[in-house]
Design goal:
- The complex is a heterodimer of chains A (287) and B (167).
- Chain A is an alpha+beta fold.
- Chain A has 3 domains: 47 residues, Uridine Diphospho-n-acetylenolpyruvylglucosamine Reductase, domain 2, CATH 3.30.43; 114 residues, Uridine Diphospho-n-acetylenolpyruvylglucosamine Reductase, domain 3; 98 residues, 2-Layer Sandwich (Enolase-like, domain 1), CATH 3.30.390.
- Helices cover 31% and strands 23% of the residues of chain A.
- The two termini of chain A are 37 Å apart.
- With 167 residues, chain B is an alpha+beta fold.
- Helix content of chain B is 29%, strand content 14%.
- In chain B, strands 2-1-5-3-4 form a 5-stranded mixed beta sheet, covered by helices on one side.
- In chain B, helix 2 packs across helix 5.
- The radius of gyration of chain B is 15 Å and the shape is globular.
- Chain B starts with a strand and ends in an 18-residue tail after the last helix.
- Classes of the chains: A alpha+beta (287), B alpha+beta (167).
- At the A-B interface, strand 1, helix 2 and helix 6 of A face strand 4 and helix 3 of B.
- The structure holds flavin-adenine dinucleotide (FAD) and FE2/S2 (inorganic) cluster (FES) (2 copies).
- The site of one FE2/S2 (inorganic) cluster has 11 residues of chain B, from loops.
Chain lengths: 287, 167
């Protein structure tokens, strides 16, 4: 399978990327790791006429502490996030979740900005970023602006980015040694989640909880968060995990089973985050 | 467009269409047909090669994305007629049946051993999660990787004229 023809533009800075987006208009697409875009181009589900390759923009590759946040460049590959000592010490949920994406070859190419921009409801890192209450920094013709991640994922493969903008950075709070849990249910180890739940204790004392594949976008489990804030037990709160979700039915799971998984995985993630139980491994996961 | 990369230690410059995939460039332009294309959809790992020290599925990388890179394919593994430790272990442990997945398995295994020179059985299986064998000979493949690990650091490297493999 070969994509249809396109022009290829290589940029080495964010400014060049913004200029190229302005020049080529809406038929142009950013190419980062290419591990979501190239497969759909090979299937001709996407037919951009220009690809703007940002993978050579070194200024987008970093994981660093910035005040009370960790700032991560959009070009950071899943593999680099997984191995980042800064991330492991400051926000360990993220490197763990990075290690659960796809397989090693995929993690060697896929980038954080790419997975956020792609906006797949089943994606792992966006779920973790949502639980963390991340900020998405985008650059465009009018400079940079910050979008709270809770306002970023608008619908199925639709984000709050405007035409001509690209993601340059993700910012998350430093959670340090605070508890976190990520429970991903798959049929095979390297698959996308059928459902996944992320839970993390945040510096403001709240617990962030988010779900993958329970609707058209990754979702914040607001009912669970509210119940925890009111002092409800983990069991009571997790029982609300499917509230306000709209999961689909497919060959892997129907709505009822996905709702069950959401409650179960949320409970497990919260218990791991609270230090009550160990994280499930691929071998021990059963639902 | 023009693309230049170092393939198995040799500098190569060619004219390619932007949509040309690295797997096709290696096979069709450079004649390096050890790299197989199986699923053509990033699932099976048959097309795995090493680019700048990291294993990648070459059916999902544009040739142009390898501009300026060091690329190693199966053809680049042996030195002076001596098989790479991973190749030798696949032979001695009979880590193949029809052989279609083998090139990708060998390349991915080098990546696994670069990341973790002394893996357990479980860690080998996890490290090879992106590679499928339709003959399902996984047991011997895992044995081969464990055997290759006995050769020490060389098992996680490609020949010295070339790149260092990091993971
Ligand atoms: C076999 C396989 C298994 C996978 N398994 C999983 C999994 O288990 N869990 C999971 O979460 N993901 C999985 N993925 C997806 C993987 O994480 C992708 O790499 C990721 O979703 C996209 O990142 P990318 O850098 O490759 O983006 P690309 O494919 O380059 O781009 C994806 C989209 O984002 C846009 N884009 C990219 N970067 C930017 C930017 N900085 N600003 C604005 N727009 C941008 C592109 O224009 C395109 O529309 C898998 C992929 C494959 C091929
Ligand atoms: S041919 Fe590339 S992953 Fe199967
Ligand atoms: S040996 Fe036949 S596909 Fe693996």
């Amino acid at each position: 399978m070969i994509p249809s023809q396109f022009d290829y533009v290589r940029v080495s800075t964010v400014d060049e990327a913004v200029a190229a987006l302005a020049e080529h208009g809406e038929d142009a697409k950013i190419l980062a790791g290419g591990h979501s875009l190239l497969p759909i181009m090979k299937l001709r589900l996407a037919v951009p006429t220009v690809l703007i390759d940002i993978s050579g923009a070194q200024e987008l590759n970093y994981v660093r502490v910035d005040g009370d946040q960790v700032a991560i460049g959009a070009g950071t590959r899943h593999h680099d996030l997984e191995k980042s000592e800064v991330a492991q010490a400051e926000v360990p949920l993220l490197p763990h979740v990075a290690s659960r994406v796809g397989d090693p070859q995929v993690r060697h190419r896929g980038t954080l900005g790419g997975t956020v921009a792609h906006c797949d409801p089943a994606s792992d890192l966006p779920t973790a970023l949502l639980a963390l209450g991340a900020t998405v920094v985008v650059a465009g013709p009018n400079g940079r602006r910050e979008i709270p991640i809770t306002a970023f994922f608008l619908g199925f493969f639709e984000t709050a980015m405007e035409e001509g903008e690209l993601i340059v950075e993700l910012r998350v709070p430093r959670t340090g040694s605070a508890g976190w849990g990520y429970e991903k249910f798959t049929r095979r180890e390297n698959d996308w989640p059928i459902v996944a739940a992320a839970a993390v204790h945040l510096p403001d004392g709240s617990v962030g909880v988010a779900l993958a594949n329970m609707g058209g976008v990754v979702l914040r489990a607001e009912a669970v968060e509210a119940a925890l804030a009111e002092g409800k037990s983990i069991e009571e709160a997790a029982a609300l995990a499917a509230e306000g979700t709209s999961p689909s039915s497919d060959m892997h799971a129907d709505v009822e089973y996905r709702s069950h998984l959401a409650r179960l995985l949320t409970q497990r993630a919260l218990k791991v985050a609270a230090g009550e139980t160990e994280a499930s491994t691929a071998e021990s996961t059963a639902a | 467009m023009q693309v230049s990369m170092t393939v198995n230690g040799q500098q190569r410059t060619d004219e390619v269409e932007p949509r040309m995939l690295l797997a096709h460039h290696l096979r069709d332009n450079l004649g390096l047909t050890a790299t197989n294309i199986g699923c053509d959809s990033t699932s099976c790992g048959a097309c795995t090669v090493i680019v700048d020290g990291l294993t990648v599925k070459s059916c999902t990388v544009l040739a142009l994305q390898a501009e300026g890179s060091e690329v190693t394919t199966l053809e680049g593994l042996s030195t002076d007629g001596e098989m790479h430790p991973v190749q030798a272990a696949f032979r001695s442990e009979h880590g193949l049946q029809c052989g279609f997945c083998t090139s990708g398995m060998v390349m991915a295994s080098i990546g696994v051993l670069a990341d973790n020179p002394n893996p357990t059985d479980r860690e080998v299986r996890e490290g090879l999660e992106g590679n499928l064998c339709r003959c399902t000979g996984y047991h011997n493949i895992v044995q081969a990787v464990l055997k290759a690990a006995e050769a020490g650091p060389a098992a996680g490297q490609v020949p010295s004229s070339q790149q260092e493999v990091s993971a």
